[in-house]
Automatic annotation (TrEMBL):
Cross-referenced InterPro entries: 4pyrrol_synth_GluRdtase, 4pyrrol_synth_GluRdtase_dimer, 4pyrrol_synth_GluRdtase_N, GluRdtase_CS, GluRdtase_dimer_dom_sf, GluRdtase_N_sf, NAD(P)-bd_dom_sf, Shikm_DH/Glu-tRNA_Rdtase
Subunit field text: Homodimer.
Pathway: Porphyrin-containing compound metabolism; protoporphyrin-IX biosynthesis; 5-aminolevulinate from L-glutamyl-tRNA(Glu): step 1/2
Domain called Tetrapyrrole biosynthesis glutamyl-tRNA reductase dimerisation: residue spans: 320-413
Annotated residues for binding of substrate: 57-60, 113, 118-120, 124
Pfam families attached to this UniProt entry: GlutR_dimer (PF00745), GlutR_N (PF05201), Shikimate_DH (PF01488)
Active site: 58 (nucleophile)
Gene transcribed to yield this protein: hemA
Binding site residues for NADP(+): 193-198
Catalytic activity: (S)-4-amino-5-oxopentanoate + tRNA(Glu) + NADP(+) = L-glutamyl-tRNA(Glu) + NADPH + H(+)
Keyword set, alphabetical order: NADP, Oxidoreductase, Porphyrin biosynthesis
Protein name listed in UniProt: Glutamyl-tRNA reductase
Catalytic EC class: oxidoreductase
The record's note on its domains: Possesses an unusual extended V-shaped dimeric structure with each monomer consisting of three distinct domains arranged along a curved 'spinal' alpha-helix. The N-terminal catalytic domain specifically recognizes the glutamate moiety of the substrate. The second domain is the NADPH-binding domain, and the third C-terminal domain is responsible for dimerization.
C-alpha cells in the first residue's frame, strides 16, 4: 500500500459481522445499544485509538477505525458486548485499507443491506460519526470518507430506482401481514416499541392496512404518544402490556431491549396470535412457540421475502455501482494528494528558510530595505513554486514516488514518519 500520511496509526480497518453469515442470535450477542456504544468509544479513547466509527443495526454490527492490528478493534467489540473472540472469528469479516473503504461505500449505499436498497443504515452512519466526533475520535480522513459515502448514497437514491417501493424490514413485516392475515383491517394490532423500526412499521401499518385498531406501547410513554398523536392511534401504558397482548390478533415487537421482553407467560388468550419480532437481539422468547395458538416470525425470515419490487431493484445495481466508483474516485484523488502533502509542506519550510536567510543578507546590505515589500514578494514566489510542484505531482503521466524522492533529495527534505493506508 502507498503512504498517504493521514494517521499516526498504521492501517484503516472495517471489522464486523452481518446477516450474511451471522444468524439473529449471534448478531444479538454482538449488538450495541447506546450505553454500550458510549462505553466502547470511551475505551477506544483510553487505548489511544485515533479515529473510530461504530454502527449497530438489526442486520449488522461494524467498527471502522485505525489500528496497528484488527484485533485491537475486535477486542473493543467483544469487551462491550456479550460476544466472544471465538464466536466473532467464525462469522466475521475484516477488511483493510482500500477494501475497508469500498465496504463502507457498499454498506452506506444499500447494496450490502439485508433488503437491497434499504437506506436506513446511512442515517445511523451519520449519527455514529457525530458521536465519534463528540468523543474526539473522528480524524480528517474518516470524516471525509463518511461524507463521501453519504454523497454516494444521496446520488443513488435520487438517480436510480434501487430504493423504489420503500421496501425495508418494517415494510416487509407489513407486507407479510397483508399476505397472511385475512380481514386485516379489522384485527387488533399491538405495536410494542417505537424506536426507528417501530416508527417506520407504524407508518406502514397505517398506510397499507387501513386498520383503525392499532395500539402503541413503549416503555417511555411520551415517545409512543408523539407517534400516536401523529397517526391518531391509541397509546397505552407499559403496565398494560399483558392485557393488551391478550386482546390482540397481531403483536409486533420492535424494542431495543438486550434480552427478551415477551415470553409465553404473558400470553393467556387462546385465540390465534401472530407475533412479529423485529428486534436484535431477539425480544420474543422462543418459548412462545410452545403455545398452539401462537405463530412467531422473526425479521430474518421477513428479510428473505422477495417480490417483484425487489427483483426490479436488482436491475439498478450497475448504475448504483457506477455512482459509487465515481464518488470513490474523487475520494481516492483527494487521498492521493495526502500522499505528497508532507513533502510539499517540508519544501515550503525549506524555501522559507532560504528566503529568510536572503532577506537577512539584503537587510544588512541596504539601509533603505523595504521589509514589507520584500516579505510579500518572497512569500508569493514560495507559493508559486510549491503550487508548481503540487500540480506536477498530481499529473497522472508521471511517477509520483520517483518525483517525491527527487524533490526530497534535491532540497534535502526531512519528513516525520507517517502511516500506510
Amino acid at each position: 500500500m502507498q503512504k498517504y500520511n493521514i494517521s499516526r496509526s498504521h492501517y484503516f480497518y472495517a471489522i464486523g459481522l452481518s446477516y450474511k453469515k451471522a444468524d439473529a442470535d449471534i448478531r444479538g450477542r454482538f449488538s450495541l445499544d447506546d450505553d454500550s456504544k458510549q462505553a466502547l468509544l470511551a475505551q477506544a479513547k483510553e487505548n489511544n485509538i485515533e479515529s473510530l466509527v461504530v454502527t449497530s443495526t438489526c442486520n449488522r454490527t461494524e467498527i471502522y477505525g485505525f489500528a496497528q492490528h484488527p484485533f485491537q478493534l475486535i477486542q473493543l467489540l467483544c469487551n462491550n458486548t456479550n460476544g466472544t473472540v471465538d464466536e466473532f472469528q467464525k462469522v466475521a469479516y475484516v477488511y483493510k485499507n482500500k477494501e475497508a473503504i469500498a465496504h463502507m461505500f457498499r454498506v452506506g449505499s444499500g447494496l450490502d443491506s439485508q433488503i437491497l436498497g434499504d437506506f436506513e443504515i446511512i442515517s445511523q452512519l451519520k449519527t455514529s460519526a457525530k458521536l465519534s466526533r463528540k468523543h474526539g475520535l473522528l480524524n480528517h480522513f474518516t470524516e471525509r470518507l463518511v461524507n463521501a459515502v453519504i454523497q454516494a448514497s444521496k446520488r443513488i437514491k435520487t438517480e436510480t430506482d434501487i430504493s423504489s417501493g420503500a421496501t425495508s424490514v418494517s415494510f416487509a413485516s407489513v407486507q407479510y401481514i397483508l399476505n397472511s392475515v385475512e380481514d386485516v383491517a379489522n384485527k387488533n394490532i399491538l405495536l410494542f416499541g417505537t424506536g426507528k423500526i417501530g416508527r417506520n412499521t407504524c407508518e406502514n401499518l397505517v398506510k397499507h392496512t387501513k386498520n383503525e385498531h392499532i395500539t402503541l406501547i413503549n416503555r417511555t410513554k411520551d415517545k409512543a404518544e408523539r407517534i400516536g398523536g401523529k397517526f391518531n392511534l391509541v397509546v397505552k401504558d407499559y403496565a398494560n402490556l399483558q392485557e393488551e397482548i391478550n386482546q390482540s390478533d397481531i403483536l409486533i415487537v420492535a424494542t431495543g431491549a438486550q434480552r427478551p421482553t415477551i415470553d409465553k407467560h404473558l400470553i393467556q388468550s387462546k385465540k390465534p396470535l401472530l407475533i412479529l419480532d423485529l428486534s436484535i437481539p431477539k425480544n420474543v422468547d422462543s418459548n412462545v412457540k410452545e403455545l398452539d395458538n401462537v405463530q412467531l416470525i422473526h425479521l430474518d425470515y421477513l428479510s428473505k421475502i422477495t417480490d417483484e419490487t425487489l427483483e426490479a431493484r436488482k436491475q439498478h445495481i450497475p448504475s448504483a455501482e457506477a455512482i459509487i466508483e465515481e464518488v470513490k474516485a474523487e475520494f481516492n484523488s483527494w487521498l492521493e494528494t495526502r500522499k505528497f502533502a508532507p513533502t510539499i509542506k517540508a519544501l515550503k519550510h525549506k524555501l522559507s528558510d532560504f528566503a529568510a536567510a536572503e532577506l537577512d543578507t539584503q537587510r544588512r546590505k541596504n539601509a533603505d530595505f523595504n521589509e514589507a515589500q520584500a516579505a510579500l514578494i518572497s512569500n508569493n514566489i514560495i507559493q508559486k513554486i510549491t503550487n508548481h510542484f503540487a500540480h506536477h505531482l498530481k499529473d497522472d503521466n508521471i511517477s509520483t514516488d520517483d518525483s517525491l524522492e527527487l524533490i526530497k533529495k534535491v532540497f534535502q527534505l526531512e519528513e516525520s514518519p507517517k502511516a500506510n493506508v
